[in-house]
Write a structure and sequence with these properties.
Distance between the termini: 37 Å
Shape: globular
Helix content: 25-40%
CATH topology of the largest domain: Aminopeptidase
Strand content: 25-35%
Number of strands: 13
Number of domains: 2
Radius of gyration: 21 Å
Mean pLDDT: 95
């Protein structure tokens, strides 16, 4: 089975395919991809594979130069864009053998395009959780590294959901006086404040953080229906905030920060508020975006989540050490 891969530059046509692809995320939206390309000094290649006239998958690839060396990324590094990579399109009733042959051909054709048009010495792909089969990349000389995140199932009733969570979370939600704090949906100023405070926290820990207010502002304008913020205040003073991405069935906890010295447990209150609002909107999954940091897992595990896997896939050329070192510095 032959899959023909070519760029699709029409944003509306691209987004219609994104809506059909189970593995696509809010960052796959064409407007978001353009913002990411602009903020990472990258050239976007929005690739789509076709079997005849039928789309088989989409794969946003970013070309980036480091001096004389070219690399290809999906997503680009160092902007906290956890998931991207390919998203396949196939009839769920298609027999497995045919589906796997088409998937393999799609990946091989996409990488043939990348090799011919970009000629990268280094390729890095991070999949979404729903992209559950990385084998076509393994069969094309990629090295896989499993990565992990937490999903919270929101389909049950709220009382049962809370009862299954950690005792400190239950206590904080039930016993914090409702008039001791306010949680409100924020606009662009609040979104920017969240990342400014998050950068300050990372600086205190000596950890790089390159999510900028301008990136957040441009993304919020590009995908306004899929990006939102909530801010917790005490007597009109910022106590914490969370920046979310949403699609039809998932809310993603993209960036979050809380003041440890605040008189209320702002992070717990924010997370529970997000869960309540998501359930009201018919969303059945809360992705805590990351279960790889041991310290942060201690907090996130109290939401009684399931552990889910996604993949970092890398392919290196002759200058492997140069590129991997450069990528490590960028991350």
């Amino acid at each position: 089975m032959s899959v023909d891969v070519q760029p699709l530059t029409d944003p509306e046509s691209w987004d219609r395919l994104v809506q059909r692809a189970p593995a696509a995320t809010p960052f796959h939206r064409h407007a978001a991809l353009e913002v990411v390309a602009d903020h990472t000094s990258s050239e976007l290649h929005p690739l789509v594979g076709y079997v005849g006239e039928e789309p088989a998958g989409l794969f946003p690839v970013f070309e980036r130069r480091f001096g004389p060396v070219v690399a290809a990324f999906s997503p680009p590094p160092n902007r906290k864009l956890t998931y991207m990579g390919p998203a396949t399109l196939a009839d769920p009733n298609m027999k497995r053998r045919k589906r796997e042959r088409r998937h393999l051909s799609f990946v091989e054709s996409a990488m043939a395009y990348v090799d011919e048009e970009i000629a990268p010495r280094y390729v890095s792909v991070r999949t979404s959780v729903e992209y559950g089969d990385p084998r076509p990349f393994l069969w094309n000389d990629f090295d896989p590294t499993p990565r992990y995140t937490y999903h919270v199932d929101l389909s049950g009733d709220a009382d049962t959901l809370l009862s299954e969570m950690g005792s400190d979370l239950r206590s904080n939600v039930r016993n914090t006086a409702s008039d001791a704090f306010e949680i409100e949906r924020g606009g662009l100023p609040e979104m920017e404040q969240i990342v400014v405070n998050a950068k300050r926290r990372h600086d205190e820990q000596g950890v790089a953080y390159d999510v900028t207010p301008s990136l957040v502002r441009d993304l919020a304008r590009a995908i306004p229906d899929q990006m939102r913020a909530y801010v917790c205040t005490v007597d009109d003073v910022f106590a914490g905030g969370t920046l979310l991405l949403t699609d039809e069935d998932t809310v993603y906890r993209w960036q979050s920060v809380a003041d440890f010295d605040a008189p209320v447990p702002a992070q717990d209150l924010l997370d529970w508020h997000v869960i309540e609002r998501a359930r009201e909107s018919g969303i059945d999954r809360y992705d805590l975006v990351g279960a790889n940091n041991r310290r942060l897992c201690r907090y996130k595990a109290k939401f009684a989540p399931t552990v889910e896997t996604y993949y970092r896939l890398e392919r290196c050329g002759p200058v492997m050490n140069l590129l991997t070192d450069a990528y490590a510095r960028l991350r």
